[in-house]
Specification:
alpha+beta, 2 helices, SH3 type barrels, about 120 residues, seven-stranded antiparallel beta sheet
Amino acid sequence: MSTGIQPGDVVLVNLPTHEPKGHEPEGLRPAIIVAVPSGYLRFPIVLVVPVTSQGGNWANQNPILYHQIPRGTGGLPRPSVALIDQVRAVDMKRITTYLGALEQQLLQNIRHSLVELITA
């Protein structure tokens, strides 16, 4: 199934609310497409890393899990942080808007961090 969505695309995605409330991002927010599964799928999904513009000291403490993204990169209007520790699968129906695309090196860095997270 060809969707036109590719790894490295930055999109707005509507993330569901959670009950009970936790620390997972919710609502309409930017996210980076990190993988588009191929082959037969029960449902059309993509793997995304949510992005926040709410940086802080925490964002500098673990550069493996929190990648800094400069303003304007991938269509992001503000300096942002990729939340590697919040990676998730989402249904393609949750994607509302295409914002832009990351440079390949930044996407590779984020994917490398995902591998480190999973194999730690």
